[in-house]
Model the fold of this input.
Amino acid sequence: MRIISIIIFSILNSLNVFGDSPKCIKYELELTLQNDSLINGFFFFHGQYLYIDEKPLDSISFNDIYLDRLNIPSKTESVIIYKSIRKISLKESDNFNLYFCQREDKVKVLVKDIIKAKEISKNSCFPELDKETQYTVKCPPVITELTNDEIEKLELKKPFLSFEYSNMFFDDGLQYLMVFSYDKTVTEQELKDLIFQKCCSKLSNNFRWSELEENYSLLKKELKQKDIIVFRVNSYN
Done:
């Protein structure tokens, strides 16, 4: 079975759904857990997964979604909390934004362990849009595979070259690569050829995802030495 490495936003599958249109709310939370520890961070709610008594999206609280609706949460129900995130606009022309978080700042919290959830803030991921539409746009992905230095470079320095890459192995529409080159000597086609050669050229139609993962890891290390940043984006995030 193919396992696609995606950022999982936990949902409550036992509840009804709003419909097919995407919706998103970004919460900044302070969670008090059973052991009296505190976790501060951000939670992204995909509104299409829950029906909350016809409430407007901008009035739905974290407690509405999880704590008040579950008298006895399951032992495995969980939420993903990002302790620190950065929002970076990577394409000036179409306002393409992604969130970045270091891997160690992504925390999985069991709902049954949450005693209290304090909302510090609640916002749309797209405050630049008008109020009628800003909560009806799909949440941007949160990328967790980059180092702090790589995130800062993306934020502060314009690359010489950037492009998206996908093929039959990276499942176009499900998962694709974003490539940002700070090496002005390499061309887009050269990089595309290199990605295919290193990641995909020796894979069969029945390949295991672990093979692609291993190839991708080696590719990232090679490109990093060339001052090139690559990461995966999943359209379901």
Observations:
- The chain has four helices and eleven strands.
- The longest strand covers residues 24-33.
